[in-house]
Amino acid sequence: MNIDVNGTPMRARSLFTEVQIRARVTQLSQEINRTYPPDEVLVVLMVLHGALLFTADLVRGLAMPTVIESVRLKSYQGTQSTGRVDIVGDTLPASLAGCHVLVVEDIIDTGRSMETLLAHLEGAGAKSVRIATLLDKPEAHEVDIKADFIGFSIGRNFVIGYGLDLDGRYRNLPYVAELIKT
Ligand code: IMP
Ligand code: MG
After folding, report:
1. Which ligand 1 atom is nearest residue 73's CA?
2. What pLDDT does 18 receive?
3. Which of 32, 78, 127, 173 is the most buried (most CB within 10 A)?
4. What is the CA radius of gyration of the chain?
């Protein structure tokens, strides 16, 4: 698939297929099941919109009583991080006190989104806070953030699909593709 990024022609090259993603997400659900007590509530805090598809698949494999909450962060324009992260609407779910919270993210790039969200969560009184991310770009980290559950580690190329967008588009692709200059 060819994509125009601000006048630069790019090619979307498949990085992880639907089958590879399904297999890895199943493994992650099992890892999460082994980490938490089976009878305690887990609040899955989905970071919108990127983690929508990942969360929907991940929670199907969870064995403990699970609550799904969401928060919306925004930091990207086009393929460049703006360096500033906002919690859209400036609200966290009210019901996190005493709960295990699992933040579910699509990708960790600079790490600033997760840093900002973790700082907001500090006062919420959660019993534990962990991070599950589908993708991690370790070479791009600018702050010291380590996810507890990582689907795949990748290089610096911009990726789309399975929830990940380019200015709001391509989230619906069932696979993950990287953008390559043509
Ligand atoms: P960070 O704050 O730099 O770690 O960026 C995290 C957010 O930027 C993610 O939640 C994504 O929404 C977005 N992002 C980072 N890299 C990519 C990418 O390669 N494709 C699509 N979105 C990305
Ligand atoms: Mg995101």
Report:
1. 10
2. 98
3. 32
4. 16
